[in-house]
Design a protein that fits this description.
single chain, alpha+beta, seven-stranded mixed sheet, four-stranded antiparallel sheet, 15 helices, globular
Length: 497
């Protein structure tokens, strides 16, 4: 039988007995991860003492300026190694209750997360067809959905928390308040035309707004997720491979980007403006929302045309991989520039990059937290509206993606982004890899999935198609007078390709 023992001696002043010594002993038998003996042998007081002494040691050594960040990383590492069961739903034992509070009360983000703090949240609507009467849904289905949500939050506890920016913290944090924090779920009813709202034709954005949950942020606090079910399942269990990975200490900040991003936020309407209020990006009043599709055959035809034009100009086949994402993004970008009749000058396309597999070292695909950065592609509008416009756009996007091999995490130039004319800035929201049409609560695939937050961001969205045959859906927001031109350009371009 092998034991590990550590003694910590503290010298303190007692009001009743002068100076005295207190010895804290941390003892544990040598056992493997996830052993039930970890739970039974856990000592919260010993843990707190060990953590405090280590923090003091690090502060005295060379981390006095940043001991809080070190403490954050060390705590998450401790939890994932010593008590790995903590992150696997073993919250019920009283022995772990204090540590749960210790770890989750203040959860820091990484520097990539800071980048998106004040951007408008992503809003999506899932349209499902069911045969349940309203009373049956409320009495039978709704309790199951709420129970399933409760089970899911045991694995994704962070979603029940709030974003806050304490006066004594140099950056915003995710704060957990036991007994107070939860995910807001609103139940509503509507007499709107379900089939009109879930169609692929252009609809006024304002028709959809009342199907969205309220997302109330303030200078001091913002929720991480809100839900709404609007009326016109089975419980789910996470498999071991889907269990979320939370250790943020694996994400290294290569160039002190976090401090740059935090300072940028503090200087907005600052100085030292610790506000979490979401930027109020007001959309035009006459904006319309529409959905278009590119089938697998469409994408392959465009790809062949691009390769032919590329060979004619470069006298060789493209040496880089041309993906469905690149083809679709380029095609939609060109159609939008033409429909908006943008005059000579630079236009820009922003897209998000999943950094998980691109970091050194790579982090698991089950990492739960923001690990996304943003990249911009610049091109002259005259080149995009020309005969080889789609090929030009594909080349620009491919070169940007190839450049990620030299480092996916590059400092975002906020000053450049803010100086760009919004009419010349296009961006992409969502990803086909989310497989939104695989979302199933027991009623089959959704009839339609709509990303509605595009009305404020001006982005176009990409997702998988409902039929699952390899095509892509594109969500578009345009002013009313631009919709006819875009529809015509989108259709005629497919005839050419």
């Amino acid at each position: 039988m092998y034991y590990r023992e550590i003694w910590f001696t503290n010298l303190g002043l007692h009001i009743w007995a002068g100076f005295g010594k207190r010895v804290t002993t941390a003892a544990r038998r040598w056992v493997g991860n996830n052993s039930p003996e970890i739970t039974s042998g856990f000592d919260q007081e010993a843990t707190a003492s060990v953590v405090a002494r280590l923090a003091i040691h690090e502060a005295e050594r060379d981390l006095a300026h940043d001991v809080i960040r070190w403490l954050d990383k060390m705590l998450k590492s401790f939890a994932s190694k010593f008590g790995s069961g903590i992150f696997s739903g073993l919250w019920s034992p009283e022995k772990f209750f204090g540590l749960r509070e210790f770890l989750w009360k203040y959860l820091p983000g990484n520097f990539l997360w800071v980048l998106w703090v004040r951007f408008p949240p992503v809003l999506r609507i899932f349209f499902f067809e069911t045969s349940h009467a309203t009373t049956t849904f409320l009495d039978t289905v709704l309790p199951k959905l709420k129970h399933s949500l409760s089970l899911t939050l045991q694995h994704y506890l962070v979603l029940a928390e709030n974003l806050t920016w304490p006066p004594d913290s140099y950056k915003s944090i995710i704060q957990y308040v036991e007994g107070d924090d939860a995910v807001s779920l609103t139940i509503a009813q509507s007499g709107a035309d379900f089939y009109h709202l879930s169609s692929y034709s252009f609809r006024e954005v304002k028709e959809i707004h009342h199907f969205l949950p309220q997302f109330l942020s303030s200078d001091t606090q913002a929720p991480l997720m809100t839900l709404q079910i609007t009326l016109r399942g089975e419980d789910s269990i996470l498999t071991p491979g889907e269990t979320p990975f939370h250790d943020r200490s694996l994400i290294k900040d290569p160039g002190d980007h976090e401090r740059t991003y935090v300072n940028f936020l503090l200087d907005l309407n600052g100085p030292n403006n610790k506000s979490l209020l979401i930027w109020d990006l007001k959309p035009p009043t006459d904006i319309m929302l529409g959905t278009f599709q590119l089938t697998r055959a469409n994408i392959e035809n465009i790809k062949k045309r691009v390769k032919t034009q590329w060979q004619e100009k470069q006298k060789q086949e493209p040496a880089i991989h041309v993906s469905s994402f690149t083809i679709t993004s380029a095609y939609v970008w060109v159609c939008l520039v033409k429909a908006k009749q943008i005059s000579t000058g630079k236009v820009h396309l922003g897209f998000s990059v999943d950094c998980r597999a691109r970091l050194e070292p790579p982090i698991p695909s089950t990492y739960f937290g923001n690990c996304v950065t943003s990249h911009l592609v610049d091109e002259d509008s005259n080149d995009l509206i020309g005969e080889d416009g789609v090929t030009t756009a594909v080349k620009a996007i491919c070169e940007a993606i190839e450049g990620l091999k030299d480092g996916a995490v590059k400092k975002v130039q906020f000053s450049k982004m803010l100086s760009i004319d919004r009419n010349r800035l296009f961006s992409i929201g969502g990803s086909p890899r989310f497989e939104l049409y695989n979302t199933d609560f027991g009623w089959g695939r959704p009839r339609k999935v709509e990303m509605t937050s595009m009305d404020k961001s001006g982005a176009f969205s990409l997702s998988d198609c409902r039929d699952g045959n390899g095509g892509l859906e594109i969500g578009i927001v345009l002013k009313k007078h631009e919709t006819e031109a875009f529809t015509s350009l989108f259709a005629s371009g497919l005839e050419v390709h």
